[in-house]
Hints:
41% helix; 231 residues; 8 strands; TIM Barrel
Amino acid sequence: MNDISQRLQAIRERIQNAAERCGRDPGTAELLAVSKTFPVEALQEAVAAGQLLFGENKVQEIMAKAPQLPASLQWHLIGHLQSNKVRKILPLAAAIHSIGSLSLARDVDRIAGELGLFPKVYLEVNLAAESSKHGFGIEELRSSLEELYALRRLEIQGLMCIPPYDEDPELSRPYFVRLRELRDELEKSGGAPLPRLSMGMSHDFEIAIAEGATIVRVGSAIFGERTYAMP
Ligand SMILES: *Cc1c(COP(=O)(O)O)cnc(C)c1O
């Protein structure tokens, strides 16, 4: 077994254990393998080890990699999406985790209509109100919900967050709790289910699962350290 398949196997076991520890069915916590910056060969190793869900943060990178890999893979866009790239990504992405503003949501809805698609999307929440990050503010999301639900092309899955990074994964927990509580609140006030939570990365995915993540986005723990910084 190569490194990638070994690490993938280890992550899967940790996901399973984390789910079982809190009494969850392990099948409810999916693993998104975040392959940004890694070459197609690395993804092929993961595919050979049974991985089908891949996350990338750039539209161009999905466009470059997808044609070189099996059509059965599912690509999730997890990075910031610019409106001028929506038309390109919609036919390729199985889900978009980074709907972080009403104007982007409107553009995705309109273009999905033109293309005859119903994209699966997550609403990204900027919980710590970091100016360096995209995403809805909490208040902004509350007041935008009605209009978001009126965008009939969007299949809104749930919420996504990227907590401020700290080496100590326990410091991510309060953010995961807030995302789950916000989800519960919006389900009540909006009257529509938001069943999914996209949260947790290499260093904190077990805590995310304990707090309700349904998909964890794990990159470096599978593929190794990236040689350039995450944009
Ligand atoms: C890069 C990235 C990840 C994965 O980060 P790792 O620490 O390598 O697991 C997860 N989510 C987003 C949004 C990312 O950009």
